[in-house]
Amino acid sequence: MPALREYQRAFGAALLSGDTAVAAAMIGAAPDRLSIHRNTMLTALANALALTYPAVEALVGAEYFAQAARAFIQAEPPRAALLSLYGGGFAEFLAGHVEALPYLPDVARLEWAVECAARAAGWGAAAPDVDLGGTRLTLVPSLTLLRTSYPAGPIWRAALDQDGDALARIDPAPATSWLAVWRDGDGAAVLPLGDAAFAFLSELLAGGDAEAAINAAAFADREGDPIAAITREILPAGFVRLSSSNQE
Amino acid sequence: MHSLAPAPIPADAGIGLRFPHHRHVVESRPATGWFEVHAENYMAGGAPLTYLETVRRDYPVSLHAVGLSLGGTDPLDMDHLARLKALAERIEPGLISDHLSWSAIDGVYLADLLPLPYTEEALAVAADNIDRVQSALGRTILVENPSTYLAFAASVIGESEFLAELARRTGCGILCDVNNIYVSACNLGADPFAWFPAMAGAPIGEIHLAGHAVRQLDDGQEIRIDDHGSAVDPAVWALYAHALGLFGPVPTLIEWDTAIPEFSVLEGEAAQAQRMLDRHSGTEAGNARAA
């Protein structure tokens, strides 16, 4: 009689490969009975991916998405029993497998950032903040920044809205964009940023002070007015809270 | 944060709370006895956890895990156990449960509740894992009989005997899934009523009820799939009546996980279970249990 671990190794290999004959013979069961478990596993994992990547699914269609999901599951099965956080490598996988839509990995990276932000702590947890000469600027703890090589933000939005006209109007050519993603209520919000605002926030998130952040913004946009850009883009944004630094 | 008052799970009908009903339950506070959730769906935080904390302020809550892999030969995933412990500290659930099954091998999580051969070796593996989980959590858990589609030629112990022995060795309770008893018995050509005698005197802490699907395999065999996607089958209600006759009133959960209907449909199923529970609340078995 095989040891329990040998059964489990054979069973696991059968589920991942789809070749159920060896494990079925070891167990003494019909191979199609193991296939029931394989279907349950694939359905659960593909559903988890579809929940995290709805825009990718809308862009490639359900059938193609199911194929890609199955290939990804085979290549990178989950390492933890936490399916809401399964699939962080999907963007990289798509980059290697889907050449027809070069912007797809960027859309997937944005969806992963959205999923992570939606699960992150909201206001109340410890957050980066900085003193801007009398005004304290606090960033929501869930804030993450994303640099994309394609216009992933508008493509993502149009795909989620299933707005074919909007999608057709977007030029999908490579074009660097900067996005802020943070938890907002039950989900996450996404806001495009200019290069000065992005540089400013990147420096703050890296632990820099106000002076370093303003210098980074000025360096990123040497021709514009970084202070004006920060005032216009960041101060009114939903990921920022302002307070008087004299109140402490 | 204020700590929550303890809320044991009553011997009444409860409902498995799923994401589509979060808002409804929080906003309309239905007259449901208690709720159970899949623990893993709340471990990543975010809005789901916020809903669960709100629900817990008004109802007893049970945490039903699927990821501990109690029958696994991999070492227990201590990160996962820590996540469950953290969630339990936050929610203070009346019950915590997982399954008599395994889900992980060589560090890969297979996202299904996989069957065990019922052998002395498997009994020792499961008992050891349950011991470790219970000492990490500082409380006993319930272990649920799985739905099965295949039997191991190597099995030498009956499933209910196996569970009763696990309870004896570890002090864990038993979550008796009546739909799973029926599904497994049909799939393996056994008598579902034959599951119960070994449970005489066993610590039954909870009952699960759910619907299942009937499918044809390629070779024409009929198989019952535990998909939790329909109303409880009449044959399962009959088996539930038998269980109540033996165990007396036990907290009973309605589960529905695929093609999730309006909340009122679940309330209808729970009301049916409650009527049956009420009929047993004054019985000898019920009194023995309460004593």
Report the β-strand fraction of chain B as a percent range.
Answer: 15-25%
Residue windows where pLDDT falls under 50 for at least 5 positions of chain A: none
Radius of gyration of chain A: 23 Å
Radius of gyration of chain B equals 18 Å
The backbone outline of chain A, from C-alpha atoms, is: elongated
Helix content of chain A: 40-55%
Helix content of chain B: 25-40%
Number of helices of chain B: 9
Main beta sheet of chain B? 8 strands, parallel, barrel
Tally of helical segments of chain A: 12
Q: Largest beta sheet of chain B: what is the strand line-up?
A: 1-2-3-4-7-8-9-12
Query: How far do the termini of chain B sit from each other?
Result: 36 Å
Explain what you see.
Chain A has 248 residues and is of the alpha+beta class. Chain A contains twelve helices and six strands. Chain A has helices at residues 4-17, 21-27, 31-52, 54-60, 62-75, 90-97, 104-119, 152-160, 164-169, 195-205, 210-220, 226-233; strands at residues 129-131, 135-139, 144-148, 177-184, 187-193, 240-244. In chain A, helix 4 crosses helix 8 and helix 6 (90-97) packs antiparallel against helix 7. Chain B is an alpha/beta fold and 291 residues long. In chain B, helix 1 links the parallel strand 1 (13-16) and strand 2. In chain B, helix 4 (120-137) packs across helix 5 (159-170) and helix 7 (234-247) packs parallel to helix 8. The longest helix of chain B has 18 residues, at 120-137. The radius of gyration of chain B is 18 Å and the shape is globular. Chain B starts with 12 loop residues before the first strand and ends with a helix. The chains are: A alpha+beta (248), B alpha/beta (291). At the A-B interface, helix 1 and helix 3 of A face helix 3, strand 5, strand 6 and helix 4 of B.
